[in-house]
Amino acid sequence: MSNTVVMGAQWGDEGKGKIVDILTEQAQAIVRFQGGNNAGHTLVVEGKKIILHLIPSGILHPGKICCIGNGVVLDPEVFLREVDTLREKGVDASPERLLISKRTHLIMPYHRALDTAREVHKEGAKIGTTGRGIGPCYEDKMARVGIRAADLADEALVREKIAAALVEKNALFRLYGVAEMTVDEVMAWLAPLSARIAPHVQDVPAVIEGCLTSGRNVLFEGAQGTHLDIDHGTYPFVTSSNTVSGNAAAGSGCAPGVLGQVVAVVKAYTTRVGSGPFPTEQMDACGDYLVERGAEFGSTTGRRRRCGWLDAVILRESVRLNGPTGLALTKLDVLTGLPELKICTAYEYKGQTLSYPPQEQDALAGVTPVYETLPGWSEDITAARSMDELPAAARAYIERIEELLGVPASIVSVGPGREQTILR
């Protein structure tokens, strides 16, 4: 294994946490390179479920270095809550192996309040944000007024930045009818958190460089999915960062030339949380079947996920944008029991047949999916550890996905457990 990027190829929730957990064994350092705690990874190890939102999945492997890169926006409360949870479970989450880049921007209470206020104010035009303050924090980053992890060492600088931020934020709070905040209130909230976070704040690019120069592999972990990318996703129903593989270098602090393999994680069907177009969504018994068998409820919000058939058009765009060297096909076992399976192979749109999604805003809401039907299977596949142990129909389904995308499925997940995996 070379340095590897793991990213989602759909609208997030593809099962990246399990794939990162598996690939971590072959890496020395794992770096989360974008997003915030609006993303959640659910892992099942030895029958125990662990949900992480900020800390890389690799933390469960002793001896590995886990880094939160500069492309992430970090909520100090959520980070420390995860640290405490891991320690309670006997996992080493010490500053020696859990690092935060000095350039990582911090989510403040006014970011969360503004995020929620805006979504409430939109009423019928909601984006579906989690209200975690992710977008407003990225806004401050781009406006060059954000608070970075390294700033915590300078109390006067932090106080100055908070005061400047609250001039604008309090004006917006007045507009939205939300209680205003004072500098002292925010500083009082931050002080105890800052003391605990400070030991974790280090030069992450230097750590990555140290691994690379010593010949050790680095695993770059993305959050959300390609079609939630701020530039390439279904705008405006997107997240506030670049989720594509090309951002792994910029969001971690290394040169793009060090990126080797790209593993695109693909759920065997399609899901989406929140608002936005979803051409293959099934709002019927089939959709309910996928929700129930797949336990399709958000690990961050608990919201029921929208479910539908696999969309090869969306995935072709993901292949074009990310250049994957392999696919990690997840939740194949959820399809067991369906008499037939459908794959969307093209869209009909304004009298044309499209192999790639239209790029105009809201155009995806106007497409009609063109389906190809394949036979399903009824056999339990959760004990399969090789392709030969899968039913013929399951193998045919995988092979058709490979043909449509032109990328091999190097990993096939047949259950939530770490061991329920076929490696090819």
Automatic annotation (TrEMBL):
This is Adenylosuccinate synthetase. Plays an important role in the de novo pathway of purine nucleotide biosynthesis. Catalyzes the first committed step in the biosynthesis of AMP from IMP. Coiled coil: none annotated. GO terms for biological process: 'de novo' AMP biosynthetic process; IMP metabolic process. Its EC number is 6.3.4.4. Keywords: Cytoplasm, GTP-binding, Ligase, Magnesium, Metal-binding, Nucleotide-binding, Purine biosynthesis. The keyword Translocase does not apply. Pfam families: Adenylsucc_synt. The gene is purA. It comes from Alkalidesulfovibrio alkalitolerans DSM 16529. InterPro entries: Adenylosuccin_syn_GTP-bd, Adenylosuccin_syn_Lys_AS, Adenylosuccinate_synth_dom1, Adenylosuccinate_synth_dom2, Adenylosuccinate_synth_dom3, Adenylosuccinate_synthetase, P-loop_NTPase. The active site is at residues 13, 41, 141. Its main location: cytoplasm. IMP binds at residues 13-16, 38-41, 130, 144, 224, 239, 303. Homodimer. GTP binds at residues 12-18, 40-42, 305, 331-333, 413-415.
